[in-house]
């Protein structure tokens, strides 16, 4: 190998390239499958559709990773060892959209918003690095903390059951429902003296639901959590990095051994299938939803900027303005591709950036290999069906770790913020976290506000982001500090 070739551009021997590529895939796999599971079930899609979302996500993860790591013209790809995956920052807004518009039409609205936001992100890419001044660690740390806390609610519901629907803690007593039905029939009978039932009259759920928080589900979730913690405590390097994935595998095996996991749909799924664009129909472009996702993309690109700067330090590669623009433009392009292929917004995965530091391997072709492997996995529907077959409670213990780690990353970044000599930073964090908690604590706070702005305000992540940016500008002004961005990204990867 010529000594003039930069370590980032070295092509390793095939065997080592494949092994390291698989390593990158395993490190990101648990995070990659989480978002399509969350959004697919929030949309109330059937099992086959959720499995397709998972396959589509794996396929686009690989495709966008190829563009980012290998490069596609001078306009796209930062050409560093980067693995691309769905950002958790978009989960809150997408779940809010799904809850308001469940089913296939809701999916079309989400994909339309993603495509629109991706196009805007590509146009904005050269400008975003200049916006770095508005996102110092006190802002990014607060936003990431709120993202983690918001997602932890999903992980907790994975363990016990959703608070609404078939697994709600309380359900209507069937005897009471039968009585009300009989009264309704009598009130509508000819010659009845009973007044008609008021429109919208319904019984309050009062009976405890056996499907909520059964001890068997809690036990398996706890087992998954214990396995993850044991592996994290006793292993180092690669195995520590895939502790979450190994915990899910153990939980799945135990669930299957007790007859709680079924493989009918896995058996019937095909071995190979092309990912169809616009599988759910033509996207619906709603301006308010596009604005919502655009705000998410700005946060995502600011986070990516810090990641790229940190990765440049780790690989001894000087990050130029054109390189940074090409990398951020790929975030936008990947998001457009995601919307076209029925999946979600993309960004660089911090755990894979951290893996570069752990292994010391700087070659971007390792991530190119990882991208090819992800594409291959996405073209095998049985993989998506297998993930979809996992009982939600198996993912619960893993979700607690995955989403809790996001929150912990925000705390780690905030730990580097100067709160002693700049006490106003306390106000930024305190008020912004408060805004982020509003939709969680009082989800109906918006009931008297114009319906058109609901998508903008029903995500605590967006409320916290807007609050943190505005309060930071008010208290601290705007100063360019790339060093702080690098340090924040380094903290996120540690």
Protein topology:
Layout: H1 14-42, H2 47-70, E1 84-86, H3 91-100, H4 104-128, H5 137-160, E2 170-171, H6 174-187, E3 207-208, H7 215-234, H8 238-241, H9 243-257, H10 264-268, H11 287-315, H12 321-340, E4 346-348, H13 350-359, H14 365-378, H15 381-389, H16 392-414, H17 424-441, H18 454-457, H19 460-476, H20 482-493
Antiparallel strand pairs: 1-4, 2-3
Helix pairs in contact: 1-2, 1-3, 1-14, 2-12, 2-14, 2-15, 3-4, 4-11, 4-12, 5-16, 5-17, 5-19, 7-9, 7-16, 9-16, 11-12, 11-13, 11-20, 13-20, 16-20, 17-19
Order of H and E elements: HHEHHHEHEHHHHHHEHHHHHHHH
Average pLDDT, all residues: 83
Distance between the termini: 31 Å
Backbone structural class: mainly alpha
> Could you name the ranges where pLDDT drops below 50 across 5 or more consecutive residues?
none
Q: What kind of assembly state do the chains in view correspond to? A: single chain
Number of strands: 4
